Amino acid sequence: MVKRKNILVIHGPNLNMLGKREPELYGTMTLEDINAGLAKKGKSLGVKVDAFQSNHEGAIIDKIQGAGGVYSGLIINPAAYTHTSVGIRDAILLLKMPVIEIHLSNIYKREPFRHKSMIADVATAQLAGFGPMGYSLALEAVVQMIE
Ligand code: DQA
Predict the structure, then answer these.
(1) Hey, which of 82, 84, 119, 130 would you mutate to test ligand 1's pocket, going by the most ligand atoms within 8 Å of its Cβ?
(2) Could you tell me which CATH number the domain at 11-124 has?
(3) Band of residue 3 on the pLDDT scale cut at 50, 70, 90
(4) Phi, psi at residue 49, to the nearest 5°?
(5) Residue 136 near ligand 1, beta carbon < 6 Å
(6) Residue-wise pLDDT tens digits, 53-110
(7) How many CA atoms within 13 Å lie on the side-chain side of 47?
(8) How do the domains of the chain map onto residue ranges?
(9) Which residue has its alpha carbon closest to ligand 1 atom 2?
């Protein structure tokens, strides 16, 4: 049975290094900080937020495949796989729920290879360049979408 109020957040490769990783670009918050903020925000919005991070494409695909029937919405930062992964794209196409693609940085202001997202046209919406605040905005948006 679908638990209507569960939201899945997937963080792709190298996002476990947030805080240490290029702080001038990604900020000083750690992934734990972001996840704690999401859990708190989720509580205030009446939803449970489960967060998952992996550096492995197949593990991310497995997680997306398992999301149907369990979650009502997905927020995903596919990180570097954004620009390469047909596999993640195809897995997202299996889902019948709102999917928000999110990036901490504004990928369109960066190197040309980051301008192409394999996910953008199969996601419900995209948020880029808001830093960690983007996760909070994405959660608010996805909760409104499922209500
Ligand atoms: C990112 C942008 C990607 O291009 C990059 O590979 C990342 C992080 C972001 O959140 O801004 O790892 O998804």
Answers:
(1) 82
(2) 3.40.50.9100
(3) very low
(4) -110, 120
(5) no
(6) 999 999 999 999 999 999 999 999 999 999 999 999 999 999 999 999 999 999 999 9
(7) 29
(8) 11-124
(9) 79
